[in-house]
Amino acid sequence: MTGATRRTEAVVSLAAVAANVRAVRAALAPGTMLWAVVKANAYGHGAVPVALAALRAGADALAVALPEEGWALRRAGIASRILVLGPILPEQAGGVVSADLEAIAFSPPVIDALGAAAQVAGRRVAVHLKVDTGMGRVGAAPQDVPALAERLGRWRSIEWAGLMTHLSDADHEDATWTGEQYRQLLRVVERLRQRGWSVPVHAANSAAALRFPGLQADGVRAGLALYGLEPWPGAPPLSPAMELTSVVTMVKPVPRGFAVGYGHTYRAPAPQQIATVAAGYADGVRRALSNRGAALVGGLRAPIVGRISMDQLTLAVPLAAPVHVGDPVVLLGRQGNEAIRAADWAEWLGTISYEVVCGISDRVPRVYRDPHEAP
Ligand SMILES: *Cc1c(COP(=O)(O)O)cnc(C)c1O
């Protein structure tokens, strides 16, 4: 048997991705490098199609979290620069070099492993020194950067391609800490300059790139904005690229007191209809949305009632609403004048929109079309 039979889909608009790339590009000073961040399967949107769309729309290069994610892009024939943003261990250096990826480094063993792997392969590998200016996860202490730069310089097989840091609070209302981190980075740049070294600098994620043009440096690494998700509360609108849709599998009128789902956590307060939908927590519709979230059906906003189960969920709809088996259900996206955004899920769930879109599971087919076109 072939073909999709269960119509729960993540509909991804590559036109929206392209529009967002152009919007970010328009906010950058001329000549600023735009790295399109497509880690984690392009935040759940599908790494290869998104990467191709982003490059076509004007991104200069790609960034991923893991070498494996870079390999997948290479296997798809993508020849652009690809930076692995995550820390690698020395034993991963060979896999970076063989796929012609770029790596970050902040320790002598990783620098030496990259240099040696490239030398053996008869190639050069591009390395970005990562400095920790206050995220506190990975990166060299600022005072250690000159010694690491010297270490890089010993390897003819290494091209020193960048100095980078990552900002911890660029989406926060209070910009004080972000400014502090950036000044810390500039002090490192200055120390290197005094020794005659100059290298491209990049620090900004989506929020920093769009909120603080002064932090764009030589390049920005934008993920969230490319997917049309707002990088900080109240950001200028972008075009959300993913809709999550499903279908009504049953609809029935129920009397007052009718109980729904595991644990009978919901009882109809009055006669109404219950519409059952072919999506559940195994698809990424998190169980914590039970009796809390909503979906769009028949042009109405309908609350999710009862517990979300693995493969199904239930909506309450008014008795008079014309809802039928087979009707489309929008879990994320627009229907009529209503919209449910990843930010709404994030608020219901006490998380961030990043986690919402990354959490749409592999079971959900990604379908590439503009959601506002006829299929
Ligand atoms: C994920 C990531 C980004 C992109 O961040 P957004 O907020 O999605 O734009 C940039 N830099 C690094 C190091 C990252 O890990």
Notable traits:
single chain, 375 residues, alpha/beta, TIM Barrel, 8-stranded parallel beta barrel, 6-stranded antiparallel β-barrel, 25% strand, elongated, binds pyridoxal-5'-phosphate
Task: Give a quick precis of the structure.
The chain has 375 residues and is an alpha/beta fold. It folds into two domains: 166 residues, Alpha-Beta Barrel (TIM Barrel), CATH 3.20.20; 132 residues, Lyase, Ornithine Decarboxylase, Chain A, domain 1 (Beta Barrel), CATH 2.40.37. The protein contains eleven helices and 19 strands.
Overview of the molecule:
With 375 residues, this protein is an alpha/beta fold. The protein has two domains: 60-225, TIM Barrel (Alpha-Beta Barrel); 242-373, Beta Barrel (Lyase, Ornithine Decarboxylase, Chain A, domain 1). The protein has helices at residues 14-27, 39-43, 47-56, 67-75, 93-98, 108-121, 145-153, 176-194, 206-211, 342-349, 353-358, and strands at 9-12, 33-37, 61-64, 82-84, 102-105, 125-130, 158-164, 201-204, 219-222, 242-254, 259-260, 266-267, 272-277, 294-297, 300-305, 313-317, 328-335, 338-340, 366-368. The strands form three sheets. The protein has an eight-stranded parallel β-barrel, surrounded by six helices. A six-stranded antiparallel barrel has the order 10-13-16-15-14-17. A two-stranded antiparallel ribbon has the order 11-12. The mean pLDDT is 96. The site of pyridoxal-5'-phosphate has 11 residues, from helix 9 and strand 9.
In percent, how much strand structure appears in the residues? 15-25%
Full CATH superfamily name of the largest domain? Alanine racemase
Question: Average pLDDT across residues?
Answer: 96
Tell me which CATH architecture of the largest domain applies here: Alpha-Beta Barrel
CATH-derived topology of the largest domain: TIM Barrel
Order of SSEs = EHEHHEHEHEHEHEHEHEEEEEEEEEEHHE
Q: Which stretches are poorly predicted, pLDDT < 50 over at least 5 residues?
A: none
Helical content class: 25-40%
Named once each, the bound ligands are: pyridoxal-5'-phosphate
Count of discrete alpha- or pi-helical segments spanning 4 or more residues: 11
In whole angstroms, how far apart are the ends? 22 Å
| Name of the level-1 CATH class of the largest domain | Alpha Beta
